[in-house]
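Listing S7. Sequence submitted for prediction.
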Amino acid sequence: MDKRVVPDLDLDYVRSRFPALTDGWAYFDNAGGSQVLGTVIDRIANYMRTSPIQLGATYAKSELASRRQHEATEAIAELLNVRDPHEIVFGPSATALFGRLARALRPLLRAGDEVIVTNLDHEANIGAWRRLTEFGIRIREWKVRPETFNLHIDDLAALLTNRTRLVCFTQASNVVGSVMPVAEIARLAHEAGADVCVDGVACAAHRAVDVQASDIDYYVFSAYKVYGPHLGVLYGKHDKLLALANLNHEFFASDALPYKLQPGGAPYELVYGAGAIRDYYRDLGIRLGVPQQAALRDHLHAVESAFHAHENELTARLLDFLGGRPDIRIVGNTRACEDRLPTVSFVVAGRDSATIPPRLDPQRVAVRYGHFYAKRLIDALGLAAQNGVVRVSMAHYNTIAEVDRLIAGLESVLT
């Protein structure tokens, strides 16, 4: 991307929107959970103060609560380019929603049907499907090539058969940071007669999501990794959701969307809080020169470009340091590029990964080690005995100065 034609983010303004960034820490664990917008926090508090009411009644407070839920759901739908808010299902986490989706889809599958999963994904989009083997469903695995740390479409093509019903994969790895060509994969799967289920958790904070353009059947992300509350979001095409089994009380009809897939209801205050995420993107879009009245897609694309340019600068700075040390192995692409997130994992020769992050804590630099629930990937790369990788996951509100603090800290730790 040519940074000369991309307006710079006003980082002082951006950082002012996140209350926790005033505490002196440099947060590099954003793939595990981003910082939360002040407007999200305010909306949650306001909801609990003024409309902590059951929905669906005729009195004014209940009508207010219902209206707020509808408006917030529309905001989340608009972020994903979802045309019908009834195609949005909320849950406590992405893991819980993948589990619900697998249970609701199971009655539509027959013994001998095949589901393709990867060994790159977070376990949420693997384990839920592997549990279907007890019903005679065959699981086929799309494997990472260790030499590239990535999935290759040719390998997927070889796995597809006339019994393939579903292809499950991640939009971007939460360990190696690689971004997958979702639309291309979806097209290949659909040509084989299969649906696709995409884990967008690691990617949604860095790329504009468009489920229409990518022709995704099911898409899941976590609002708490996109500057919001601890809330999972599932999108499904309307006809696909209608066909799913009811997971709620038995009297719910098959067209009771999203309620048949939300047993116990949604966490209403969190849904309302998450609605502020859309407003943040629109606000940034205006500051980047997009007309206020322009479509949200225009704001999202401008913000995506600005995020990507800034995050690439952060990533390049860190990769240059890591790549210059003979004792460090970068697990993933060694350069900042279009199809790489600002999520950088590495291992140090002769060092247990678990020993490194704690030594950065006194310097108030927050990084993490482990397998990050992509345990199958860590096993495939032979890194389990080393306690996985050290992961630095950056976001658009991080600064070059913070990356330099991290580098200085690593230099002292690794001396």
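Caption to Listing S7: primary sequence and predicted structure tokens for the chain studied. Residues 187 and 407 are 42 Å apart (CA to CA). The chain has a mean pLDDT of 97.
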